[in-house]
Amino acid sequence: MSSSMIDAPSGDLVAVTLDTDFKYASKALWVGASGDVAVVTKSGQTITIPGVAAGTILPIRVMQVKTTGTTVTSPTTNIIALL
Question: I need a labelling partner for 24 at 20 to 30 A (CA). Which of 18, 44, 54, 63 fits?
């Protein structure tokens, strides 16, 4: 992916299905409820981001949001991937 594509605004929004790989790495995640968010980064690292506030946009490139470690209420409706 060229750097101009990475810097461009999101072209698609996808409701997150936990433990399912995205076709492409996200540009960011929107988190609509507070809690922890466990992700697999584009480089393959699994990490939990603790204490994310409701309404936060996490500008991170991830391939997956994990069930284990994610404590956001109703994550399938409260976490949106910006692709």
Answer: 54
Mind listing the pLDDT tens digit for each residue in 28-77?
A: 999 999 999 999 999 999 999 999 999 999 999 999 999 999 999 999 99
Paired tokens of 58: 């996490």
CA distance 83 to 68: 23
Report how many domains make up the chain. Answer: 1
Token pair recorded at residue 61: 């490139």
**Host domain of residue 60:** 3-82
User: How far is Cα 47 from Cα 6, in angstroms, rounded to an integer?
Assistant: 22
Token reading at 76: 């399938």
- Within 10 A of 25 (CB to CB), how many other CB atoms are there? 19
